[in-house]
Amino acid sequence: MRGFLPDWESLRRHRIPEWFGEVKFGIWSHWGPQSVASSGDWYARHLYGMQPASEPWERRRADRQHAHHRARFGAGGAKDLFQRWRAERFDPGELIDLYVSSGARYFVALAAHCDNFDLWDSGRHAWNATRVGPRRDIVGAWEQAARAAGLPFGLSFHNNWTWRWLDVAHGADPATGEPHDGGLTKGDGAGTWWEGLDPAELYPARHAPGAKPPPQVADRFYARVREAIDRYRPDLVYLDDGRLPFDAGSVVESEPVSTRGLDLLAHYYNTCPTGGLVTVKDVPDADRTAVVLDCERRQLDAAQPYPWQFDTSDGEWFDCSDDDPMFHPRKTSQQVVHTLIDVVSKNGTLLLNVPQRADGTVDDHARTLLGEVGDWLRICGEGVYSTTPWKRAAEGATGLGETKGYEGYNEADRAYRPGDIRFTRRGDAVYATLLAWPEDGTAAITSLGTGEGLLKSRPARVELLGHGPVAWRQAEEALYADLPPTPPTKAAYMLKIT
Description:
The protein is α/β, with parallel strands linked by helices. The chain is built from 13 helices and 17 strands.
């Protein structure tokens, strides 16, 4: 339905496109200039050093990354990362083929991170990848490759954070007292590689901590987002905020509070050929079709009435060669599969970031991980793709654990036990996925016992995917399935009950 107006009442008529509820697994390229340092997340901010008001975890990381930056690059600020990023081995077609073989059914590209650098041929922001660094339209290359492979294509925007993220560029080096580059002017670039570029368009204006940005900051953000969606026609738009950026409830509210987010939603939904969907991170129940809930590294404990997205990364959001324990560790294929089936059982999709090196390639760990996930999905994908939640999402005693961090992170490599099971449904089949292999060779599924009354009729067949039919019996307390001596898959084991 078209004709959306820029208000929540009208936008609630929007319906989440069917493709999003069917794909279940996607790959995210959260990649850009900050990969140059191979030092992980938030590098463009932390290269400036410790900020007094920061949380302890950020102070530790800032100290580490500032020392790394001084040792590796000497001086310079965030802008200087852009020139060092060349993406000289970036082959989007080869990478998209790799992602398709892993079982991914949609793809999202980073359009602009908090470092305020546009990865497309922007007509509104000169600090972009066609003018600096790769001198190539990165977003356009991704979009062409994803469309050629038949994948829905998304874009993510994070530069709404720039106001309170790159304000550090106006400070001074904590060790030497040397001013940072936030105060440079366009004229200072004469005779340098950035001649003709204006730092005032890259870094936020000097402001007091906690100050709200003026309206032109929100205007500029939304003008750039609108330019990108009009040019590349993404099927999905990821906005990195609690609510619509610069609106009430967002990470940084503008002064006065902006309504530009509603204007963007109405324009996007009225013009997107596939209907469009926008994800944010704090969605009241009433708005769950107007915008889609995104949970960063945060699994939910119950099935949701509308499709939602869980996003995470194989390690840090940006390439990181360090093994420091305060950073997110790399993932195993078992952890990815366990997360995938847990999220899908609760009506969600998994969006997995695969960190890329600065040159555009991915490492052997990522290739092995993706290959093993693809192997599992080739056998068990019928219980993942195009499924819907069953009457019960899960059973078992292993919980999600304590949340941590500002987003309520709770993902972990959990030690699941044989009683931990996730359910999905497709047609007349119920899929019960065991998250651990029973040592006694028998799967006991409590939710399928006659005493629970959740099955309308007695099963006709029980099959272990990758193996074939298995003997089974249904009792009041559980459905029991006799398993072969050796599991046919790794990580998780899917029973199909017809």
